[in-house]
Amino acid sequence: MSKQTVKVPDIGTDQAAEVAEVLVSEGDSVEVEQSIIVLETDKASVEVPSSHAGKVISVLVKEGDQLKTGAAIMEVQTEAEDEAADEEVPVPAEQGEPSAGAKEPTADYEGPTAAPRDEDTREESERKESKRPEAQPTEEAKEINVPVPDIGDAGDVEVIEISVSVDDEVEEGDTLLVLESDKASMEIPSPASGKVTKLLVGEGDKVKQGQQIAVLQSAGGKAAGKAPEEKPEAKRTERPVSPPEQRPTTTPVQQTRSATQAPAQLPPAVEAGDGSIYAGPAVRKLARQLGVDLSKVKPSGPRNRYTKEDVRSYVKDVIARGGTGAGIPQVPAVDFAKFGEIKRVKMSKIKRSTAANMHRAWLNVPHVTQFDDADITALESFRKEKKAEAEKRGVKLTPLPFILKACALTLKAEPSFNVSLDPDGEHMIEKQYIHIGMAVDAPGGLMVPVIRDVDQKDIWQLAEETVALATKARDGKLLPKDMQGGCFSISSLGAIGGQGFTPVVNTPEVGILGVSKAAIKPFWDGEAFVPHTFLPLSLSYDHRAVNGADAGRFLTHLVGLLSDYREWVDLG
Ligand code: COA
Question: Which of 41, 49, 102, 445 is geometrically suited to a Cys-Cys bond with 350, CB 3.0 to 4.6 A?
Answer without folding.
Answer: 445
